[in-house]
Design a protein that fits this description.
Elements lengths: L2 H8 L4 H9 L1 H9 L7 H18 L5 H4 L2 E12 L4 E11 L4 E7 L11 H18 L5 E6 L5 E6 L2 H20 L23
Parallel strand pairs: 3-4
Antiparallel strand pairs: 1-2, 2-3, 4-5
Bound molecules: iron/sulfur cluster (SF4).
The site of iron/sulfur cluster has 11 residues, from helix 3.
Length: 203
Amino acid sequence: MSNTMNSQIESMLTPTEVLEHLWCPRFTWFMNVQNIPQHEERRYKVLKGKEIHHRREIENKFYFRRKIGVVNKQNNVYLGSPKLRLRGIVDEVLWLKDGTMAPLDYKYTLASEHDVVFKTHQIQIRIYALLIREIYNREVNKGFVAYIRGHQKLYEVPVLAEDFKEIEKILDEIFMIVKSGQIPRRAPNRNHCIDCCYRNICV
Ligand code: SF4
């Protein structure tokens, strides 16, 4: 891979970076302006490894695809768009019988006791939806999350025009911080500071 391509990929955000920004905009500043990585990276990788192992065991046992009108699928798909400044790997890209496409992501976690998709997972699905729309040039109006711990459950996540706009607005905000180098506002919820890895250097 050429150096130009490498730096292009490095300048694209992942869904995790977007979610971290929403948790606290200063994460963007510490990581991408000050280049101070989080200590939690290792813990995340261990969890992800467990998730992949468990997912492989069960993904072929899911009989839901016919129910949601899947006519084709690809597993473990890298999605990257320099135009959107986004990249990520989605568990499945689905082709649906109505001509639209959709992302599907597995989560090695229990489904919410309130029977809803967690907000962070909704945002992640909408990021993948935006990437699929851009890369495949097809309509994407929904995505799916499968919770695979305990009772396996599949949820549909609607993706509307305003959801795409919301994601694009967040991306603009992140790149504005990186470009200006200015320290952004603190976490919207001060409870987020309690066990934050940056709390000793965040003033
Ligand atoms: S200590 Fe609070 S404001 Fe500072 S980076 Fe952490 S979560 Fe954000």
